[in-house]
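queue> pop job 88
queue> type: inverse folding (structure -> sequence)
queue> payload:
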């Protein structure tokens, strides 16, 4: 039981270290390395087992990891997010559990969304992006229609979403919710 008492206060700081490292690397290289995300997953399992017991800790780890992965997987599948971002959210879930990863994902989406809107306005791509989104919606809702493909180089840009995940994580950890 002393191991659980000693490890529990380290969960937040370790998670902060993971997301801040991911954010820094994502800003620099525009990718989040597998050694960081997979390492985060692997390291969380014995810690959760020590804190909660083997069976309960494994379940906490698995559920948090799964929810973290599933929350952002659709964005990856629609090419709106990179795989490293999805894997990072799974690592956050593995460390902090289902309840917290849900809150962090919501905060991350708000932060990332505001950042994306600022980027759209700053680059003057707001109107073009709305048109592309409209075409995507029509293609989704109208059977047999196809989305209009954007011209090469017409992207409004991208953001290193690891930064938004780090900001969402810090926001929720320090908000005390």
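queue> result:
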């Amino acid at each position: 039981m002393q191991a659980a008492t000693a490890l529990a206060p380290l969960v937040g700081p370790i998670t902060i270290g993971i997301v801040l490292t991911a954010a820094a690397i994502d800003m620099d290289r525009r990718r989040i390395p597998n050694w960081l995300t997979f390492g985060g997953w692997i390291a969380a399992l014995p810690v959760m087992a020590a804190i909660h017991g083997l069976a309960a800790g494994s379940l906490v780890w698995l559920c948090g990891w799964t929810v973290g992965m599933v929350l952002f997987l659709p964005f990856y599948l629609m090419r709106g997010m990179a795989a490293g971002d999805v894997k990072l959210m799974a690592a956050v879930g593995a460390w902090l559990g289902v309840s917290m990863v849900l809150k962090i994902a919501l905060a991350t989406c708000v932060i990332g969304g505001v950042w994306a809107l600022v980027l759209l306005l700053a680059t003057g791509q707001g109107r073009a992006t709305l048109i592309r989104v409209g075409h995507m919606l029509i293609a989704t809702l109208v059977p047999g229609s196809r989305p209009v493909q954007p011209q090469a180089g017409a992207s409004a840009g991208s953001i290193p979403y690891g930064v938004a995940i780090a900001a969402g994580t810090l926001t929720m950890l320090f908000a005390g919710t």
